[in-house]
Structures are given as C-alpha cells and as structure tokens.
Amino acid sequence: QMTQSPPTLSASVGDRVTITCRASQRISNWLAWYQQKPGRAPKLLIYQASILQSGVPSRFSGSGFGTEFTLTISSLQPDDFATYYCQQYNTHARVFGQGTKVEFE
Amino acid sequence: QVQLVESGGGLVKPGGSLRLSCAASQFTFKDYYMAWIRQAPGKGLEWISYITGDNTIYYADSVKGRFTVSRDNAKNSLYLQMNNLRAEDTALYYCARDSRDSGLDYWGQGTLVSVSS
After folding, report:
1. Could you tell me if residue A90 is left (phi over 0), alpha (psi between -120 and 50 degrees) or otherwise beta?
2. What is the residue-level pLDDT of chain A in tens, covering all 105 positions?
C-alpha cells in the first residue's frame, strides 16, 4: 500500500511544496510521481524516485528510498495546481497513492 | 509522437460485458509492457493490470477473475475484456505504456465505462 500525505494542500504561487508518499514495505527506488489536471490524463513527472522525466521543469524534484519518498516543488507556479499521485513499481501490483490535491490558498 | 487511443467504452448493465481497445502508434509496441488504469468519477487512480511483451499478465485483486487483458503485437493493440461488470467498475479507463524501470510514460485520453441498470 502507498499512503500519501497530505490529501489536500493549500498553497500560493512561489511557495515551496512537499508531498510525502510512504510505502507499506520497502520498494527500493521503484517509485514514480504523476501530475493530473482536471479532465486530463496523468503525466509522468519523476521515475526511480528522483529522475526527472524529459521536459518536466526543474522546480520539480523527488527523493527517498525504501519506504519514505517526497515530491518537492521548489517554487509553485500557476500551472502546478493539480493532483499528484505516487506509484510504486517494485512489485507486480503497481499500486498508486490516494493522491494529493494542490489548491490555491 | 507516441499515441495511445482507447475505445469501446459505454453504458452496460450490471453483470454485462464490455471489451476495451487501445491502439498504439509511433513506437515499437512489442517491446513494451502495457498497462490499464482506471479512475472512478471524482476518485483517484487505480492500477488494474499490466502485460509484458511476451504476454505475462498481472491483475489487481479487484478485477482478478473478471477482467482479461490481451495484446496483439501485429496490430499494435491492447485489449481489456471486462465480464460480470459491477456498478463499482464505473470509471474512466486509461491505457498507458509501462516503461518498466521508468514508470507509465505515455497515457491515452481514456474511455468511459458506466455500469448501471
């Protein structure tokens, strides 16, 4: 199981934002982060816990290993208000976290 | 540009069946794992299944025994056969390319399945 926190996060443009994802068992670095906007398909941001997908702005970063992972947005931009999901792919059951909605404060 | 296009969604009665398709283009389909993910209205993402290039398949417990995934590498297509559908299967169904070590790097736009009497 993957547990994300917080479920909702209120923030302003320019804020530093951190989202946490906790795995119920060790998953090494087999973790991805996705961004989803309303009415749109999810978009891959980060894979292997910390590798930025091509084309993703450098204000996004990921860290962690084992069971604790974080997604950080260094300076929140208007385009970043969205829902973020983590997903583990260490096991065949590639479970997603419940999501974190980043909204305007 | 990689493209994934789902089709086959619709309204079906509980207990009914539906077959979804996902047409892939602009990449070597047979070399990639492919996945199905769904999203119930207003809810989060739920991984359903993935299939390897040589047809090894894994399912979420929520659909095991009712859903069957297959692929036709000659047609660059992925399928999801859904049987004994329930109201809780109502969702937008996405197919995605599973790049194994690199996550789900391309997604389709989804096809909507509604299960209701």
Report:
1. alpha
2. 999 999 999 999 999 999 999 999 999 999 999 999 999 999 999 999 999 999 999 999 999 999 999 999 999 999 999 999 999 999 899 999 999 999 988
Give the closest residue to B39 by CA, choosing from B115, B111, B116. Answer: B111
The SS3 call for residue B12 is strand
Min distance B59 CA to chain A CA atoms (Å): 7
Interface test with A, best of B98, B104, B105 (most A CBs within 10 A): B104
CA A90 to CA A64: how far, in whole Å? 14
Contact: B104, A44; criterion CB under 8 Å: yes
CA atoms of A37 and A43, how far apart (whole Å) = 9
Angle in degrees, CA A12, A18, A20, rounded to 5: 140
CB-based contact A35:A100 (threshold 8 Å) = no
CB B24 within 8 A of CB A79: no
Three-state secondary structure of B73-92: CCCCEEEEEECCCCHHHCEE
Would you state the pLDDT for residue B114? 98
Does residue A96 contact residue A4 with C-beta atoms inside 8 Å?
no
Task: Give the number of other Cβ atoms within 10 Å of residue A11's Cβ.
Answer: 16
